């Protein structure tokens, strides 16, 4: 499956860069991964850049108010999208103000990692690890306990 990871900005802190690189490398064993960093001076510009980067791929927006998944549920969701769906998904992590209401209204899914607001850097690492964990579940491998 093709997973397009779109982030507003880059991981800035050292731990987040290390975490991103590690889980991106692991995730590439299971999926075709594309990474796009976008920017903008305003929330509206950031969301427009996310929309353009996603193109025609169904867009999953990371949003604290979104649907929460267990890891097996996330694995099943990705399997469904990969096998029964279009075979690609775009995931977008927003900037300091999050995504605009307009972008949220047009999204395929809002995905919440929990009710806490995470810093942008940490959210990036959690998303990648969650996608990697889901991939190992789908593959029947023992990483997930
Ligand atoms: C600092 S947060 C922005 C918070 C913003 N006030 C909002 O409500 O979206 C930066 C980005 O990290 C991601 N993020 C942070 N916490 C999250 C959570 N609990 N679930 C999903 N995504 C989260 C979102 O993509 C968000 O746009």
From TrEMBL:
<dbReference type="Pfam" id="PF02590">
    <property type="entry name" value="SPOUT_MTase"/>
</dbReference>
<protein>
    <recommendedName>
        <fullName>Ribosomal RNA large subunit methyltransferase H</fullName>
        <ecNumber>2.1.1.177</ecNumber>
    </recommendedName>
</protein>
<comment type="similarity">
    <text>Belongs to the RNA methyltransferase RlmH family.</text>
</comment>
<dbReference type="InterPro" id="IPR003742">
    <property type="entry name" value="RlmH-like"/>
</dbReference>
<keyword id="KW-0808">Transferase</keyword>
<keyword id="KW-0698">rRNA processing</keyword>
<dbReference type="InterPro" id="IPR029026">
    <property type="entry name" value="tRNA_m1G_MTases_N"/>
</dbReference>
<comment type="function">
    <text>Specifically methylates the pseudouridine at position 1915 (m3Psi1915) in 23S rRNA.</text>
</comment>
<keyword id="KW-0963">Cytoplasm</keyword>
<feature type="binding site">
    <location>
        <position position="94"/>
    </location>
    <ligand>
        <name>S-adenosyl-L-methionine</name>
    </ligand>
</feature>
<feature type="binding site">
    <location>
        <position position="62"/>
    </location>
    <ligand>
        <name>S-adenosyl-L-methionine</name>
    </ligand>
</feature>
<comment type="subunit">
    <text>Homodimer.</text>
</comment>
<dbReference type="InterPro" id="IPR029028">
    <property type="entry name" value="Alpha/beta_knot_MTases"/>
</dbReference>
<keyword id="KW-0949">S-adenosyl-L-methionine</keyword>
<keyword id="KW-0489">Methyltransferase</keyword>
<feature type="binding site">
    <location>
        <begin position="113"/>
        <end position="118"/>
    </location>
    <ligand>
        <name>S-adenosyl-L-methionine</name>
    </ligand>
</feature>
